[in-house]
Every structure is written in C-alpha cells, then in structure tokens.
C-alpha cells in the first residue's frame, strides 16, 4: 500500500485500483475536486481490507475498482459496506454498461464513474457524493439494474462469513479455508452453518450458486455494447 499524507488535509480519500496510471488519474481528479486531500492508495482487495480494519482509518471517501485483484463482481463493494457502512463508495469501472452502474448503486455504492470520464466529470461526481448526493452518468439514470434478492441477505453476514463464502465459491475445502484464515475447521463449519441459515439455503452448493449473483458477466455487457454500436 502506498500512502501519501498531507498536513492540514480536509479530506482523506482511499483509491483502490491496481492500475498505476488510473490511480494517478483518479488522484488528480480528487485533488481537482478537493484541493489538498490526503490520498491513500491500495491495489488489491487484501490491502483494502487491511486498511479498512485499521482503527486509525477515518477516510471520507473510497474510490473502488470492481476488477481489482481479489474482487469478484460486487463482492468487494458489499464487503466494504459491511465493515464501513458510513464510508461513501464510488465505484469506478472500465465497463460503462448502464445496468452495471445501476447495480453498483443497488449494492450500496453512492456513485459510479466510468473510467473514460473526463477529470472534470470525475471531480463533479466526487464533490456530489461528498455533499451527500448519489451520482451516476446521465446515460444510466433510467436504466434497470440486474436485480437479485441476494444482496440484503449477504449484508447480514459478518466480514469473516463473507470471506468463507467467497472461498466456498472458489471451490476450497474446509481444511483449506481453515489454513488460509488461520482458524480451526470447527470454526469454518460453524461459519458455514451460519451462512446457510442467513442466506436461507440448505447446502453449500446452493450458497455458491447464490454467491455467483455477485459476479458480472463482462462478456455479456461487451456483446450488448457491440450490438448497440451496430444498430
């Protein structure tokens, strides 16, 4: 994690994106909107999770890339909302499909910025969200999100239960999950029991199928954009 601190800063902003050039572009947009902010940059979900767990972290805004390493669809967004519910999140994405933008808001984001947006537009979005508004590109304002009834149930999971669920989705066995999380297999089984109850499913397979509603079919959106360009 790279941290850039400036004395006297009025705002602290986290930029979570694995692409150095775009982190620079976002940093410039944030500075344009806020003047002299304190910027903290991370390049993976693990780094973001560690930063959010820091009791000294009192960020005012998170700019989050959906395709960052360790993320699966909206999972990083949902996890962030569960551990830092008061932290406004703006999703930034190279994919500009209107339903993705709307779905980001459905999963708890306060805004959505396409990566193709100008620095001025990014600054506008940042200012709007920090003033308590929601911001979304005009082309996406009336779009219908790809809704599911899983998000509210997922939000009831603890952060550790969410990690276990994502590991189940990756096909890991209880023993592997226990090793990765440095917990006992009995604790893993207890988490899985709680996950099944909270998600109102009966088997691990059903939980994994439900979790895949967080994934985004980027290929499907690419096909939509191609079809739109040919009409």
Automatic annotation (TrEMBL):
List of residues that carry 4-aspartylphosphate: 65
SMART domains xrefs: HTH_LUXR, REC
Gene3D superfamilies: 3.40.50.2300, Winged helix-like DNA-binding domain superfamily/Winged helix DNA-binding domain
Lineage start: Bacteria, Pseudomonadati, Pseudomonadota, Gammaproteobacteria, Salinisphaerales
PROSITE patterns named among the record's database cross-references: HTH_LUXR_1 (PS00622), HTH_LUXR_2 (PS50043), RESPONSE_REGULATORY (PS50110)
Keywords: DNA-binding, Phosphoprotein
One of the protein's GO biological processes: phosphorelay signal transduction system
Keyword S-adenosyl-L-methionine set for record: no
Name recorded for this polypeptide: LuxR family two component transcriptional regulator
Signal sequence, renumbered to the chain: none
Organism: Salinisphaera hydrothermalis (strain C41B8)
Example of a GO MF term: DNA binding
Domain HTH luxR-type: 150-215
Domain Response regulatory: 12-130
InterPro entries reported for this sequence: CheY-like_superfamily (IPR011006), EvgA-like (IPR051015), NreC/VraR/RcsB-like_REC (IPR058245), Sig_transdc_resp-reg_C-effctor (IPR016032), Sig_transdc_resp-reg_receiver (IPR001789), Tscrpt_reg_LuxR_C (IPR000792), WH-like_DNA-bd_sf (IPR036388)
A Pfam family matched in the record: Response_reg
